[in-house]
Amino acid sequence: MNDPSDDARDPIDGDDVPDPAPPDEPTAADEISADTDAARHEYDPDAEHAFPDERLNEVLARLESDEEIVAYLEAQNVNPVARKGYNDHGAKHVGIVRDRALRLYDLLKSGGVEFNGARQQGLDEADEPVIVALAATLHDIGHVVHRHDHPYYSIPLAADLLDDLLPAFYGVADRVRVKAEVLHAILCHHTEEQPLTLEAGVVRIADGLDMERGRSRVPYEEGGRGINTVSSQAIERVSLREGDETPVQVVIRMNNAAGVYQVDSLLKAKIEGSLLEDRIRTVAINTHSDGRDGNGSIVDRIEL
C-alpha cells in the first residue's frame, strides 16, 4: 500500500462541533453488532467457501513452503521499514492482505458477483482465487529494489517466481494466462493504475484494508509521528462481513478521529476505480466518541 511521506501535515480540525448525543440515543460504539469480530478471520482451507477451493489450497501450501518466496517476503521489508521508517510491508502485511483478499472474494462470490479475469482468459472458476492469492502474496516484492515505484519492480520479480511455481499446477497455455492475470493484479494494486478485472480490484482493496494499529507499531515505537503512523495507531479493528445492501460491508473501528485519514484518504483511493465500488459499503466508527462529555466529537461515524 502506498504510504505518504512520514512528515506529512496532520489534518486540521473542523470548526463545526456536533451537539452531544442525547442519553437515550445509541453511541457509535453501541451500533457495532456483536458479530463484527466473528466476521474477521484468517483464511481457513478447511472451511466452506462460495468457490471451488481445492486448487487454491494446493497453491497456498506450495507458497508457504517455497524458500525463495519466503525469503523475498522477509527481504522486502528492509527498504520500507528499516531504511525509510514506513509501516510493515513484509510477510505480516502480505499475510493480512492475502487473508482479506480471499475473505473479500468469498463474500463477493456469496453475493453472486461474477468475476471476469480468469473467465475472459478461458480459465476455470477455480483459477480466480488462485490469481487473487498469488497477486496478494507477490504484490510488494518490488520493495527489495526500492520503495519508490515498487509496483513496477514487482512485475519482473514476480514473473520469475511464477515461472518456477506455476508448472506444478498448469500446462503451458494456462500458466501463461494465469501469470498474465496475476501480474495485472500486482500492477493495479498501485492507485496510479486502473484495474481491468475484478480479481485485480479485490487485491487492490485488500491492500488498503491492512490498516490496523499493529502495522505501525515499529515506526511509532521508534518515534515516528507522521500522519500515516499516527492514523494507523487509531485503527483498532477492521472486519469484513456480508452487507445488507451490498455483498460486502467493511466495518472499521477507530479510537480517535486521526483514523479518518486511513479511511477517507488511503482506503477510499483503493476502492475508487476498483470496479467494485457499488458492491462494497464501508462504515468507520469512532468507538471512543459518545458525545456525552459535553465537548462533542470531531468524528463519530463516516461511510463510503
From TrEMBL:
The answer, when asked if Transcription regulation is one of the entry's keywords, is no
Q: Which residues form the HD domain?
A: 118-211
Q: Taxonomically, which superkingdom?
A: Archaea
Among InterPro entries, the record links this protein to: HD/PDEase_dom (IPR003607), HD_domain (IPR006674), MJ1020-like (IPR039967)
Annotated region Disordered: the residues are 1-48
Keyword line:
Hydrolase
Biased region (Basic and acidic residues) positions are: 1-12, 37-48
Gene3D superfamilies, A to Z? Hypothetical protein af1432
- Keyword Flavoprotein (UniProt): no
Kindly name one Pfam family recorded for this protein.
Answer: HD
Q: Name one GO molecular function term.
A: hydrolase activity
Q: Which SUPFAM superfamilies is this protein grouped with?
A: HD-domain/PDEase-like
Q: Spell out the PANTHER family in the cross-references.
A: METAL-DEPENDENT PHOSPHOHYDROLASE, HD SUPERFAMILY-RELATED
Name the chain's protein: Phosphohydrolase
Q: Which organism is it from?
A: Halorubrum tropicale
